[in-house]
Amino acid sequence: MTKKSIAIDMDDVMTDAVGRFIELYQKEFNEDLPDLRLPGRNLDNTVPPERLALVKQFPHRHDFFKDMDLQENCQEVVRRLQEKYEVYIATAAMEFEHCLTHKYNWLKQHFPFISWTHIIFCGHKNILGTDYLLDDAERNLKTFKGTPLVFTAPHNTHLTAYTRLNNWQEVADYFLK
Ligand SMILES: [Mg+2]
């Protein structure tokens, strides 16, 4: 039987991109931004308006995508998923000029068991033809032709149109039980 296929997003699914914004905000302004972790929060409704433009430029910085923290249990669950599914990593990599090498190195370091044949650095994800897409961003989920699954992040807690997986343990339960 042909294995079903899953495309998995990187930022705020495998990595803690919200954490990187908080870290850089602290360095830039010498202030914490813990509220960015709260349900319903995003940059627009959390960062003071006069700082917003600068903070939105953080991903253009050279090191934004370097050595991001892993989401808990992600490595182990991806490894287990590979036994039953074709697992692809599908990450938008064309918007931010410095991200591609950092993302590549991050995958090599933390997921050496994922072949280069299963890594998709892309623009729009509507080109994907996998059976499932696990992503935190509505713009990717709403155009996906297979089964979209929303991975919970503070900025997507308002979404109700998709099956929601709150963490990697729930990803394992959904696909492997
Ligand atoms: Mg993402």
From TrEMBL:
Q: Identify the domain of life.
A: Bacteria
Q: Sorted alphabetically, which Gene3D superfamilies does this protein's record hold?
A: Deoxyribonucleotidase, domain 2 (1.10.40.40), HAD superfamily/HAD-like (3.40.50.1000)
Under the heading Pfam families, the entry gives: NT5C
Residues annotated as catalytic: D9 (nucleophile), D11 (proton donor)
- Please provide, alphabetically and separated by semicolons, the GO molecular function terms listed in this UniProt record: 5'-nucleotidase activity
Q: What does the similarity note say?
A: Belongs to the 5'(3')-deoxyribonucleotidase family.
The protein in question is named 5'-3'-deoxyribonucleotidase
